[in-house]
Amino acid sequence: QAGVFTYDPGFTSTASCDSTITFIDGDKGELLHRGYPIEQIASKSHFLELSYLLLYGELPSAKDLEKFETTITRHTMLHEQMQYFYRGFRRDAHPMAIMVGVVGAMSAFYHDSTDISDPRQREIASHRLIAKMPTIAAWAYKYHIGQPFVYPRNDLDYASNFLQMCFAVPAEDYEVNPILARAMDRIFMLQADHEQNASTSTVRLASSSGANPFACIAAGIACLWGPAHGGANQACLEMLEEIGSVDRIPEFIERAKDKDDPFRLMGFGHRVYKNFDPRATVMKQSADEVLDLLGIEDNPKLQVAKALEKQALEDPYFIEKKLFPNVDFYSGIVMEAMGFPTSMFTPIFALSRTVGWVSQWKEMIADPQNKIGRPRQLYLGATSRDYVDIENR
Ligand code: SDX
Questions:
Q1: Ligand 1 near 184 CB (within 6 A)
Q2: Cα 320 to ligand 1 centre (Å)
Q3: Is the confidence metric ipTM above 0.90 for this complex?
Q4: Each residue of 188-231: pLDDT tens digit?
Q5: Measured between alpha carbons, how far is 115 from 125 in angstroms, rounded to an integer?
Q6: What's the confidence (pLDDT) of residue 14?
Q7: Which residues are paired to 37 by β-bridges?
Q8: The pLDDT of residue 15
Q9: Which pathway does the record list (predicted)?
Q10: Catalytic residue (one of 157, 185, 277, 328)
């Protein structure tokens, strides 16, 4: 066994499941995928290699990696008839609404990979979801902006393919910038899996009833959409826009402390990390690199973000509450600099997290102890009483 972690009894008693995929130490700010630190993965690996690691538990040999990459590349196309699903949405539909609908609809198109009792079908469903999610997300974007769909290409890597499906137009050639593709791939890796977060727990709970994988992943996408979870990257950029300038930061920091004010610093805080989010550190480096490459290092939102981070981290309230930037704080700045509208930030998070959801789904389905999730409650309502006819009420 790679390493036996001992949990304190308190933690074990609240654990919703056991897993061997991702380990987080919230106090140390540590994130391991199958034992490998996220910092090393983000600098040395790439998204499909990390996907293989999450799915199968070990880093692949060169031969296995090539076979896996070819399988994923050759499953990136969507059933042509699925285009009609997009046309049923209003043009201004949020891309996440489209992704929830289209991924759920995969249950109706890929019947030969919905029987979860068949390991071969589980494998095919896993590959289809990872392979097709970039196409689904890119087409949601193209539909939203009224441009024609661009098909995936087999001569491009995963991140480059996604960028060309989003930004290429039939009227001219499109050359993927390799630095942007590397930054996109790194964003995919930083958001790939994160233990039992809300959307992963949703996928596990849905899967425990035996529902097909496409319906379960659609449930995860719906949960991720919330601004307290995956929707925070969009909300964070909108917050930075609202703050507008460094001199307005103190006003917003005071609002974030005011219990009567619903305002929270989006991209700050975490349910588990109480020291720092290691992903945010890497994402911040990416922001500097991409903006520097694009020659917009004086990006006003990046200046506000860095000043906000500095002031908040020196503020006694945030120190006492152990609040600091999470993965969503800088990711939006990078994605906006790459040309994405804020409405595409959470779909990109969903695209990245699909491999985490699928890996956790596979782990759960394969567990012979897997039983339908059935959380209990602490009942605080009325005790038993007799019905009162309406004339006596
Ligand atoms: C993700 O679970 C995961 O792993 C999620 C994720 C993943 O990869 O899947 O990491 C992705 O969802 C990251 C989080 C993205 N969300 C945001 O950035 C939204 C803003 N953050 C918050 O809404 C909040 O921090 C949560 C939801 C993330 C956590 O909320 P909690 O459970 O209230 O946080 P906490 O228990 O650590 O809060 C401690 C205190 C509370 O005050 P008191 O009740 O003790 O008086 O800090 C306050 C909170 O009210 N607080 C904030 C705050 N976050 C928490 N105050 C101001 N601004 C904030 N952002």
A1: no
A2: 14
A3: yes
A4: 999 999 999 999 999 999 999 999 999 999 999 999 999 999 99
A5: 9
A6: 56
A7: 32
A8: 65
A9: Carbohydrate metabolism; tricarboxylic acid cycle; isocitrate from oxaloacetate: step 1/2
A10: 328
Residue 207 CA to ligand 1 centre (angstroms): 27
Question: Pseudo-torsion of CA 132, 133, 138, 139, nearest 10°?
Answer: 60
User: With b meaning 16 or more CB within 10 Å and e meaning fewer, what string describes 244-258?
Assistant: eeeeebeebbeebee
pLDDT value of residue 4: 45
The size of the chain, in residues, is: 393
Rounded-to-integer distance, Cα 132 and Cα 78, Å: 7
Q: Which amino acid is at 154?
A: N
User: What predicted TM-score, i.e. pTM, was given to this entire model?
Assistant: 0.92
Q: CA 305: distance to chain centroid? A: 21
Residue 99 to residue 307: CA distance in whole angstroms: 35
The amino acid that residue 110 corresponds to is Y
Please say whether the beta carbons of 96 and 218 come within 8 A.
no
Cβ-proximal residues to 194 (8 Å cutoff; 6+ apart), any chain:
22, 24, 31, 200, 353, 356
Of 270, 292, 386, 389, the active-site residue reads 270
Q: Express each pLDDT in 54-87 by its tens digit.
A: 999 999 999 999 999 999 999 999 999 999 999 9
Is residue 327 in contact with ligand 1, taking CB distance under 6 Å? yes
DSSP state of 387: -
